[in-house]
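Example record

One chain of 212 residues, shown exactly as stored in the release files.
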Amino acid sequence: MTKSFSQNQLTRYPIYLKILKELRNEGRAFASSRLIASRLGYNEEQVKKDLAAVTNNSGVPGRGREVQGLIDDIETFLGYRDSTTAVLIGVGRMGQALLDYPGFADMGLDIIAAFDSSSDKIGIEINGKAIMDVSRLEEMMPRLNAHIAIICVPASHAQSVADKAIAGGAVGIWNFAPTHIAAPAGVFVEDVNLASSLAVLSHRIRDILKED
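Predicted structure tokens for this chain:
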């Protein structure tokens, strides 16, 4: 039976991975759920449950689980060890920043090309990625064997370019546009809502300042 993971649970695994790599760099060979929980301010039982869901390593009493083993299991679970091809659509400031970000390789994401409608950008390369005319998106997706489309266009164009990417074979949409994208069954959309994230952060900060 396939395990089910909540959205909140999935977002915790990259955080566990970061902490475990920090512990490895500190020279720790083992880490307990209590130690990881204390570093993150998480509930210890939650950490135990999360880790048990992605590793078969039950750990050593009094020492915890092997750090490198946990890193390997979490990276495998997250797909960081399997390269996933993607294209980026919209080479504005956000798009260019994503093209320049070196950390995607460590996460198993390979942005192999980008698309834009500006004649000033079509035909150039950014960080070794060719910029093509967005009118060729549907045609080029299957040729590039790209599975993810990263959307960085204005809200008014987001749905139309997503539709073209899906028609070209995209099964995942990573949406940075400030709007909701509708997709058919079998296509997954992950919205990166900066306004919502900032609202949550601002609200929490106000609560902390009120306590002071």
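Notes: The radius of gyration is 20 Å.
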